[in-house]
Amino acid sequence: MRVSTSERTMNYVILVAFAVFATYPVLSIVVAGLQPDAEAQGGLGNLAQAWEIGRFGSYLRTSLLVSTFVVAVSTVLSVLAGFALGTMRFRGADALFYLMLIGIMMPAEAIVVPLFFDLRSVGLTDTFWAIALPQVAQSVAFGTFWLRAAFRSSSRSIVEAARLDGASTSRILWQVLVPLARPAIVTLVVLTFMWTWNEFLIPLVMVPTNEALRTAPLGLGFFSGQYTQGYALLAAGATIVALPVVIVYLFLQRHFIAGMLEGAVKD
């Protein structure tokens, strides 16, 4: 079906309009972070000044450690759970899956206070585990739902061929199904990293006194009220905090496209 010139032009106009609508807030923050004001001289020096005043080096390191741990652990657990619920038939599978769905539907605001008292009773508050473990649980719930659908839609003929060749269950998972589900897994990694990096409530509640374990968004919140009232430095700090997420997305986007272009036999 051929597309007329007017239709193609209208498509580009709509796409450009949505692109401007989506990028304008981001670009406005970046530009504001480079402007001079009463507390900042302007230019790239604002980023260096915000980095030093806000102690973002320590906060970014904590966020990187937490995000790496949560992404790695939750992705492996989601692959295993999604494979079991998506390809195996056993008693209680549906009930277990619906239990996982509750973890998706339950907002963090509803459980963070009782969770804080539970972790405090075992001495885990103000520790790395108090930040990471709740987010692993949240990510596994969504990851299981996501990868269950991916594994259920995978080619049955390839799996049966691998079984006929004598492949074990673990080999079928890691060498057959995981490569086929690479686009879904990469998407899950990007989403999990983004959600974990941007998480504010759990670190705020779980580490009330340990400043060394503050994450980047939490540090930005304290930076805005405790260290500076200038909009330029605050925007520079927001740019610093958001930059790693943008870098990870741009890097993994190439792998996502490459994974989608990998062919496989479909039923």
**Uncertain regions spanning at least 5 consecutive residues:** 262-267
Multimer state: single chain
| Fraction of residues in helix | over 70%
Q: Into which percentage range does the β-strand content fall? A: under 5%
Q: Biggest β-sheet, characterized?
A: none
User: From the coordinates shown, what is the CATH architecture of the domain at 58-215 and 241-265?
Assistant: Orthogonal Bundle
Question: Secondary-structure blueprint of this entry?
Answer:
Blueprint: H1 5-33, H2 45-54, H3 56-87, H4 93-105, H5 108-121, H6 128-152, H7 156-164, H8 169-180, H9 182-198, H10 201-206, H11 216-227, H12 231-261
Helix pairs in contact: 1-12, 2-12, 3-6, 3-9, 3-11, 4-6, 6-9, 7-8, 9-12, 11-12
Protein name: Sugar ABC transporter permease
Keywords: Cell membrane, Membrane, Transmembrane, Transmembrane helix, Transport
Transmembrane segments: 12-34, 64-85, 97-117, 129-151, 172-197, 231-252
Question: How does this model look, in words?
Answer:
This protein is mostly helical. It has a domain at 58-215 and 241-265: MetI-like fold (Orthogonal Bundle). It is built from twelve helices and no strands. The chain has helices at 5-33, 45-54, 56-87, 93-105, 108-121, 128-152, 156-164, 169-180, 182-198, 201-206, 216-227, 231-261. The longest helix is centred in the first third of the chain and has 32 residues, at 56-87. The model is unreliable at 262-267 (pLDDT under 50). This is Sugar ABC transporter permease. InterPro entries: MetI-like, MetI-like_sf.
